[in-house]
UniProtKB/TrEMBL annotation:
InterPro entries: AspAT_Ic, PyrdxlP-dep_Trfase, PyrdxlP-dep_Trfase_major, PyrdxlP-dep_Trfase_small. This is Aminotransferase. GO terms for molecular function: L-aspartate:2-oxoglutarate aminotransferase activity. SUPFAM superfamilies: PLP-dependent transferases (SSF53383). Keywords: Aminotransferase, Transferase. It comes from the Bacteria. The keyword Lipoprotein does not apply. Coiled coil: none annotated. The keyword Transferase applies. It comes from Aeromicrobium terrae.
């Protein structure tokens, strides 16, 4: 029965039942963590070959000694694999070091300090710079724009991409210089940008001539089902619409090989790539090519990547299934929560009763279950409805995950009952 349909006495009984469960949970003295989307040790073990690669042969296919300086754009054979994933020619893909977030940071800072190839002036010389932020979204994106004083304009992230009416309206303002977007299996809802939405993003009018889409394809090949969802070819669509410089694409092997020692990629138009490499060339003499070489040998080609991702799926899919099963078992039919059922990526997004997400996170914390702070998926950490909670099932063991989810469900019910009784 939904909470709304309960009498006050029934609600009080439900509250007391959940309170008893919660007291037992606290007494159990758990330490469980559902905070960050980290691969589990078993997933990292899938790439343990990397610990012995590249072996004594440290030259790449062109005979370049990967131990030495140089090659700012990265190793061709590795770029070629990700060029396929990003739908770009290999010349338009750069391989960097271990974090695509660093490439996003640098692209943003280069635009701020130097302007993009299409900018009338560096972005810092503008009175105001605004980024469109689909919400809920990735907290570290928002933390980056916040750090540099960029105003953030939230728009709703729908199952097929951002609310395009809102995006178009915002893009008519010349202070709006760009937007964040995770096109495939978005963090945290698992939304996938459709071909139609991508085509609109590529073609839409923008008042700023140097509008950039930070197309963060962090989960491009991170499928949880047999269906290998294809990301729209935003670079092709943008070029065909006369806006070749609009998208900057990012990806990485953080959740393919080693999260801390992977390789990241930036792809874009020839002009944008030349701009990025020119500015990057002052920051570094070149990336860790030895890491590129060992990745190229470990991954081999696109099929090698897809095979490896199937093995990740075998570990991850049961964890996501456990999360969804417990949510349905404990919360289904009560009318107190809705949640995403992602086909890929690293997260489940849970919406609880408005105004109770912070309380749920606090109750969990007191019971030894760590969750990302409520509001994390919104600019400035502020969820206007205080209802969204991001669940990251990848790292804990399945037993720990089940215990944590059961505890979380108790906290959701308890917080909802408290709120209803107080109203
Ligand atoms: N983008 C998104 C959407 C992410 O969820 C994450 C990791 N949680 C990253 C980027 C970080 O990627 P990297 O390790 O390549 O910096």
């Amino acid at each position: 029965m939904t909470f709304d349909a309960l009498t006050r006495d029934q609600l009080q009984a439900l509250h007391d039942d959940q309170q008893a469960k919660y007291d037992a949970l606290k007494a159990a003295g758990l330490t469980l963590d559902l905070t960050r989307g980290k691969p589990s040790p078993e997933q990292l073990d899938l790439s343990s070959d990397l610990l012995t690669l590249p072996g004594p042969d440290f030259k790449d296919s062109k005979g370049i000694d990967t131990r030495n300086y140089g090659g700012i754009e990265g190793l061709t054979e590795l770029r070629a694999i990700f060029a396929e994933i990003l739908h770009l020619p290999v010349e338009q893909v750069v391989a960097g070091d271990n974090a695509s977030l660093a490439m996003m940071h640098d692209s943003l800072v280069f635009a701020l300090l130097r302007g993009t190839p299409d900018s009338p002036r560096p972005w810092v010389e503008e009175d105001e710079v605004t980024f469109i932020c689909p919400v809920p979204g990735y907290d570290r994106h928002f933390a980056l724009t916040e750090q540099y004083g960029i105003r953030m304009a939230p728009v709703e992230m729908r199952p097929d991409g951002p609310d395009m009416t809102a995006v178009r309206e915002l893009a008519a303002d010349p202070s709006v210089k760009g937007m964040w977007l995770v096109p495939t299996y978005s963090n945290p809802t698992g939304a996938v940008v459709s071909e139609a939405v991508a085509a609109e993003l590529a073609a839409m009018e923008t008042a700023a001539p140097d509008f950039r889409i930070f197309w963060d394809n962090a989960y491009a090949v991170h499928h949880l089902t047999e269906q290998r969802t294809k990301t729209p070819d935003i670079a092709g669509l943008s070029a065909a619409s006369g806006h070749p410089n609009r998208p900057i694409l990012f990806a990485s092997t953080s959740k393919i090989t080693f999260a801390g020692s992977g390789v990241c990629f930036l792809g874009s138009s020839e002009e944008n790539v030349a701009w990025y490499l020119r500015l990057l060339g002052k920051r570094t003499i070149g990336p860790d090519k030895l890491n590129h070489l060992r990745h190229a040998r470990h991954l081999r080609d696109l099929d090698g990547v897809l095979d490896l991702m199937d093995r990740h799926r075998a570990i991850l899919a049961p964890k996501f299934a456990a999360v969804l099963e417990i949510l349905e078992d404990r919360l289904g039919g009560h009318g107190v929560a809705t949640w995403s059922e992602p086909k890929g990526g690293y997260f489940v997004s849970l919406d609880v009763v408005d105004g109770t997400a912070s309380r749920v996170v606090e109750l969990c914390k007191e019971a030894g279950i760590a969750l990302t702070p409520a509001g994390s998926s919104f600019p400035h950490g502020q969820d206007p409805r205080d209802r969204n909670i991001r669940i990251a099932p990848s790292f804990p063991s399945i037993d720990d995950l089940r215990a944590a989810m059961d505890g979380l469900a108790t906290c959701v019910l308890l917080a909802a009952a408290e709120k209803q009784l107080a109203s």
